[in-house]
Each structure stands twice: as C-alpha cells, then as structure tokens.
Amino acid sequence: MARSDTASGSESPAPTPVNGERNGSKKNKTRNGSKKHARDNETNGSIGPSHPGERRSSVSKPARDFRDMPEAPPPKKKKRKTSTTTTKPDNALVIPTTKDTLPALQPEESTEQVSTRSPSPVIDFDGLSRPSLGTRKRLEEDDAQKEIRLNRIKDAVRTLLECVGEDPDREGLLATPDRYAKAMLYFTKGYQENVRDIVNGAIFQEGHNEMVIVKDIEVFSMCEHHLVPFTGKMHIGYIPSNAVIGISKLPRIAEMFARRLQVQERLTKEVANAVMEVLKPQGVAVVMESSHLCMVMRGVQKTTSTTITSCVIGCFERKEKTRNEFLSLIGVNR
Ligand SMILES: [Zn+2]
C-alpha cells in the first residue's frame, strides 16, 4: 500500500489547497485525497522548487488540451472506421493511436477522456508537421542561404545526370540542374507554408450545421519513397458546428500538405486533421483517389489502378448514415 501510494503520488498528485480554481474544478482527483498533500509538497520541492503549491502534474503534462475535454463522446474507447471504399484503412485510427503515444502527458486521464479529435499538435500551425532541422531551416532561411540550398540541389542533379549515363554539359541538359532544383523546391513548397497563414481567420460563425463538401480538388504530390509524383483528386467534407471555413481554404490546405513529400495515406489524414483542428466541426471526412507514378511507370505498372484513401473523424466516423451520405455525394459509393 505504501508503495502504491508513493507511485500515485508521483504521477497524479491531489489538488493542494493553494492550487486555485483551475485544477480543482476541472478534475476530481478523489482517489488520493487530502492525505497526500504532504507528499505532494515534497515532490514539488524536488521538481519545481519555486512554487510548492503548484500542481506538479503541470510540469509533466503541459500539453493537456482543453479541446479534449468537452464534447468527446466518453463511452467509446476505440472508434473503428468502416468505410467500404478504402483500400488503406486505419487512417482514423491513427488519431487515438497518436494520443496513446504520449503516455507521459496523460497517465491517468487516458481512461476517462477519449476523443477522436487529434491531440495537439498533430497539425503544424507553424508549418512543421514532421519537424526536422531541414524544415526549420528552410522556413527561416534568408536569400543567401536559399542560394546555397539551390546550388546544393543543382550539384546533386548534375551528379544524378552523370550517374544515369548522361553528359550534363550537353546543350539540352545544361540548365536542367537549375530547372530541376527550382521545380523540386516548388513541388515541396508546402514545407514553407502553414495552416494558420492559409486559414488567415477565414472562419465564420454562420450557424450552419449541414454538410459542406468541396470535391474534385486536384492534388499533385510527391511520393516520398520514390520522389515521383502522385496525382489525383481529393474530396473534403465536414459538418460544421456553426462555424464554416472559407470554402477556398479547403483546397489550399490540401495543397499545402500535398506540396511535401508524402504518402497518400498520411496526406489524407493530415488534411482531415487540419480541418478538424482549425474549425472544430462536428466531423470531417476526406477521400482521395490518386494514381501513383511509382506504380504506373515502374514496379507493377498497373496503369489504370487508382488508390483510394479516406480519413473520417467525428460524426463521420460515428454515423454510418452521415458517412454514406458523404460518399454518395462525392460519387465514390457507387
Ligand atoms: Zn512511390
């Protein structure tokens, strides 16, 4: 007993008297009770020495998100996407999984609060959904650094030309490294964009609660496995919670994520999560159909095959009827 007491003391401290309103009102940590105060304060001393009364869990759980609290349907633990049209399932499931990969953030709440909503920051408001040193550099570089980047790509392309048996100095290829470098930077310009700038406040409280769909959005992206394009169409639907997003923003969000190195499954999911995150609608559904050049031009060479991915969140995930309405409206459910 003493041992478990210690363990819970370090993980889920009870609200201390000086805690103030926030902690006390939001969560009932009833299981530990007041007998733990002394121990809490001890623990506090070792970790956050300056404020003995401050709830220690705030040190280890900074990202606890208020958006996880309210309208989450509490009873269901795992939502299962049952869309029949997908070749690649589990997009929606990734969301709770992502949450599960952050056990340190919510050790004890995870059983109480289950939300289909993506935990922040799945969506990169600063344009860094898969942050790496390179992404950050690219976002913030000045002109001189840009030049250096361009030259490095050019050198690489020149090497590539040599390696495939070409003469990079023949007339037709002379400017190819430069052209390719610029093209590649364009194909991946999404790394320099971010959701916040794109949405730019274009969210309107319209009291609208019916399904909104933008379909047949042309998408050009780059397969991250082969660095060749995959192209197709994306359909985005959502059911607002009063607020609607400027309709042109949906293709732009799709464009931002498409202009990165991608796999189609993740692209679909990222767009859905982004719309969910910025708009907080009742649900989002994204379906993408596309043709992968890496499949068409090489490998299995199935030139007519289409890959369909989908990601449904919120009410689209919960309600088959809503999902089917969406699918029939975009013409996939035929
Ligand atoms: Zn590929």
TrEMBL record:
Pfam families annotated for this entry?
GTP_cyclohydroI
Task: Give residue spans, biased composition: Basic and acidic residues.
Answer: 52-70
According to the UniProt entry, what is the EC number of this protein? 3.5.4.16
GO function term, MF aspect, one: GTP binding
Region Disordered, as annotated, extends over 1-140
**Segments forming a coiled coil:** none
Q: Which domain of life is it from?
A: Eukaryota
Here the segments flagged for biased composition (Basic residues) are 25-38
Residue spans of biased composition, Polar residues class: 1-13
What GO cellular component entries does it have?
cytoplasm
InterPro entries assigned:
GTP-CH-I_C/QueF, GTP-CH-I_N, GTP_CycHdrlase_I, GTP_CycHdrlase_I_CS, GTP_CycHdrlase_I_dom
GTP cyclohydrolase I domain boundaries: 153-330
Q: Give the record's GO biological process terms.
A: folic acid biosynthetic process; tetrahydrobiopterin biosynthetic process; tetrahydrofolate biosynthetic process
Keyword flag Cell cycle: no
- Name the keywords, alphabetized: Allosteric enzyme, Folate biosynthesis, GTP-binding, Hydrolase, Nucleotide-binding
Role description: GTP cyclohydrolase 1 is the first enzyme in the biosynthetic pathway leading to folic acid.
* NCBIfam families in UniProt: folE, PRK09347.1-2, PRK09347.1-3
Q: Which family does it belong to?
A: Belongs to the GTP cyclohydrolase I family.
The name on file for this protein is: GTP cyclohydrolase 1
Organism field? Dichotomopilus funicola
